[in-house]
Amino acid sequence: MSLLLDIMYLLIAALLSPWLLYALAFKHNYRQGLLARFGLRSLPVLSQSIWLHGASAGEVLVMRPLLERLETKLPQATFVISTVTSTGKLAAEKAYPRHQVIYFPIDLSPIVRMFLRRLKPRIIIMFESEFWPNFILCAERASIPVALLNGKLSPRSYVAYKRTLLVPWLLKKLSLLAVQNAEYAERFRQLGVPQEKITVTGNMKYDLPYDTGKELARSTLRKEFGYRPDRIILIGGSTHAGEHEALIYAFSRLRKEGHRLHLILVPRYPAEAAHIERLLEDSGLLAVRRTSLYETAHLSSLDSCDAVLIVDTMGELRRFYALADMAYVGGSLFFRKSNKGGHNLMEPAMFGLAVLFGPYNFSFRDTVATLMNEAAGIMVRNREDLYEQLRDLLTHPQRIVELGQKARTAMLKERGATARNIELLSSLTAQPARALC
Fold first, then answer.
1. What predicted TM-score, i.e. pTM, was given to this entire model?
2. Terminal CA-to-CA distance of the chain, rounded, Å?
3. Three-state DSSP state, 329
4. Which domain holds residue 54?
5. Across the chain, what does the average pLDDT equal?
6. Which of 13, 127, 214, 317 has the most CB within a 10 Å radius?
7. Among 105, 112, 82, 104, which residue's Cα sits nearest to residue 2?
8. Are 185 and 78 in a shared domain?
9. Predicted pLDDT of residue 212
10. What are 394-423's pLDDT values in tens digits?
11. Cα separation of 267 and 317, whole Å?
12. Rounded to an integer, what distance in angstroms lies between the CA atom of residue 127 and that of residue 47?
């Protein structure tokens, strides 16, 4: 089977060769890590390692609570963290400086076998929805257990996998599947995975560490950025085109009505800062970029409610959530793609913010359901609805506090997936590595 898969991969590569050559020549992200994925960069020589794999930065960070528990449970173990993307590798190197961080191998059987021979893992732990055929087959031949944690399977992927014989056959070879909810569990069962291999353990994202000293952080950060402690701050987190306009529209109306409100916009793509700046200027508002904030005039101007801060940097969203009172979480007001809906709602909820979001939250359906069931979040349908909901909150400011408290409580109730997954892994991590393929 591995030979057939290798031939299939090579045929696909040949068919796509013009596009691949173009991508390699002109797209830096396609070249990044390519030699390392073929094993043409130095690989460590290890023994009895524990290999954790997350496709990108999100999955790499989700594994942190699990890795910390494994470190305590297995203090002598060597850990390897692999990823596919350059951003994932940078995130892993920053988060896990004491461990081996590598690019995941290209899924050709000779390359996979070389990686396994060098790393000699006693167990491989994959996250969310990583199913590489040759990798799973070669691990099985080497008697290395492969566990899927925080597993998920979208309706679209389920339909695509069901049409093939390969993926359902491969899924049965996994040692265990710890999935986020009963809906995903049922889809895996429908693909033929034995019931005894599937356990619903919850979403590990709820177990990520959050700053519990919110009031201290809030007062410190507000002082740093020049906001008064008694002012209400609304943040638009990970916003996309159309959502910038909706927030500016709602904010402008609320300001004209006399509400004392500050607005911070954190676009998903910092390159959109110039466009947002023009939108604000057209609305008669002062745009202040994060990158120019510490110019004396700009820092002092944030005390004015007519000044809107545009965060045109990466990696600071959490800090700005920590100083805010209300958050609109972007990527959700307009339909983008069937597999692209919304961004991380857990983070502002954990910080105790009143959370608003649009109806297109496919990627965070469980979190939306939790917030709505606990009356701890507000779904808005359009810019007019966003304005009306914000006006109601500003008219009844105690409701902002109550919603934030409910949101945080709802998120804390969902914790515990990591502990359940550690328990499932206990028998597998105790097994020594066997002969390799």
1. 0.83
2. 14
3. strand
4. 2-202+417-429
5. 90
6. 127
7. 112
8. yes
9. 54
10. 999 999 999 999 999 999 999 999 999 999
11. 10
12. 22
